[in-house]
Amino acid sequence: MFHARSKSHRKAFTLTEVLVATTATLLMMLSLAQIFKMVGESMKQGRAALEMNNRLRSIVYKIRHDLNNLTVNPRPPADSSSGTGYLEYFEGSTTDYTCTVVSHSLSRYGDFDDILMYTCRAGDSWFTGKVPLCVLRKSIPNYNLDQNNNTIPDDLEPVTIAAQHAEVAVFMQPVVSNIGNEGFNQEVLVGSPTSFLDADVNGIPDAFRLHYRALLIRPDLNTVYAGTEPSLPFHLSPPVVNGVQYPPFLVAGRQAGLPLYLCDMSAAHQTCDLSIRRIFTPDGVLDRVAANSLEDLMNPANRFAHCQIPIRFSNASTTMPLLALTSALSVHTGGTFPDPATGPDPATGPDPATGTGFLHPAYALRSDRTGEDVLSSDVLAFDCKVYDSSMPIITMNGVDGLPAHSNGVIDVAALGASGSDDVIVTPNDLGYVPGSFATPLNSKSPSSAITGYGGYVDLMWGRKVARLAADYYKTPLSSNIVTEFSGVQASGITASLYGSGKIVGPVLLPLIMQPTFDSWTTRYETDGLRQAEIGIVGGVVQIDNAQRLYGGFNGSDVSNIAVLRRDYIDAGTDGLDNDANRGADDFAEMETRPPFPVDLRGLKVSIRLESPGTRQVFQMSAANEFVTQ
User: pLDDT at position 560, please?
Assistant: First the structure.
């Protein structure tokens, strides 16, 4: 008997089941991909953060080390015979909140147009730089000797030397829009304001580089030639060798395409990593250069990227030594000066008097040395601040419109207390402006009050606050913004800034405005030269010295110089009571004044970088205290 065996059938997946499974698998793969992407992005950001932090630490360490080893104690004025070098800090018109006001998309930018210069000791690791071989040999170069056949005379081949002291300049430069064969744009060198990258056309450069120029202090390299003043090796009339006409070597003078007064020392600075000054020749056509000592650098005219500019109101006068900024071009070209009423407002853009504040690009290394002085790229801010012990800290009511509460009771004395919504601001904040006229704490119900004093602020912060408050041209100014570093007094700009020559011109239409802390020097009071105020406009200038400096000016024309201090040279140190007031050699008889005649207690330098791949922003600061109490 046969039993029928039932046949079993295996059931297959349906199409719907296959689609569901495929979809689930794809979703799982997509999730894994997202997880891997997140992990990758996290690792990328972590690597970028580590790299940027390392870069920042390296930059900040270098600047902090320099500030800790300054050769000068910044307590102006410094004795010119002390041979201690200098400290100089220029405050450009830009602030942290300027960029934010211009465009919210630029809030990642900070103050980018400050300039810091100083002399310092190297410590264990000496400063190094390049000089042509003939400088080290102290001999005039032989242009015919080229043993390695590289078309460069052996005496002009660069060699590396070292020094324990250096003159250092730290400054920002915008990235230019068209790099030429020599690594720079000719349009940039003549100071065109449109030559930097500015894709969004808002007047602010899209990218910056931070430059660090260390110029060795080696006066021992000077040589005396035939009884002349010591200078570096020079050749005023170099020969034509193998069809090549060499330019004059280590001399100062005009170069093609460069503004004379700003850049006539730039070629020598490109050739030598030395702190150098100009040695005047009788004809003034091609002046020699000499290596500076610390004592030489007490004279601002001998410093890196400084110049004196003819004043158009008097053919016989030049400015006091100023930084060679691109915005200074209009002073000697005879053009019209920007009117603050129609030009850019400092509240929303560059100050018409100071321009961008960028050092002239001719002083950055270029040609085959392009980039050697670049400390970092992708820089968003280089911000210097001084400690102002009398700067008011202002607290304003928060959203509730009332001071801090204590057990349900309004407590004016607790304004800004922890846990309240009150807002504490300093001049670094845009909100400081409405609170700059704060009432004292003993007022019954203040909307804002001064709750403390002291902090790091931009130099001449009072002018910016007053300008933003539309109160700049009103007098008297609020006493709250009249402090040691605010740069203003009850009647406007301080007499010291005018007396230093850092500001020239009336308040409403300044020709030059370079707010600068300078360790200064007493040399102007004993130099045998005349510094005095211009009669038509305010500010101290150098009189009867333009002919010796640049030639072509009538050295006897002093018709536009004010009677004040005109008839006396070095009246503040001659032992006479020249102004018949308060005795001999009083402060009013001095020809010049330090721009900020107060001890510098502290200086803080902040650098902000951006990671180009991740767009992360990092900032770090170096602060140094000079004067303690």
Answer: 41
Residue 374: its pLDDT value, please? 94
Cα separation, 619 vs 56, whole angstroms: 7
Quote the DSSP letter at residue 337. Answer: P
Q: What is the pTM of this model?
A: 0.83
> How many Cβ atoms from other residues are within 10 Å of residue 258's Cβ?
18
Q: Which pair of structure tokens corresponds to residue 142? A: 């032989």
pLDDT higher for 275 or 395?
275
Can you tell me whether residue 384 is helix, strand or coil? strand
Tally Cβ neighbours within 10 Å of residue 45: 15
What is the C-alpha separation between 344 and 338, in angstroms, rounded?
Answer: 8
Helix (H, G, I), strand (E, B) or coil at 321: coil
- 3-state DSSP assignment of residue 74: coil
* Mean of pLDDT over the chain: 77
For the record, the structure tokens of 448 come out as 């804002």
Top mean-pLDDT range of 13-22, 426-435, 555-564: 13-22
Phi, psi of 160 (to 5 degrees): -95, 130
Task: Give the integer Cα–Cα distance in Å for 86 and 413.
Answer: 44
Nearest CA-CA partner of 415 in 400, 402, 401, 404: 404
Helix, strand, coil % (nearest 5) of the chain?
A: 25, 25, 50
Task: Write phi, then psi, for 57 (nearest 5 degrees).
Answer: -60, -40
For residue 504, what are the β-bridge partners? 512
Is 605 within 8 Å of 116 (Cβ atoms)?
Answer: yes
> Which residue has tokens 């103050």?
111
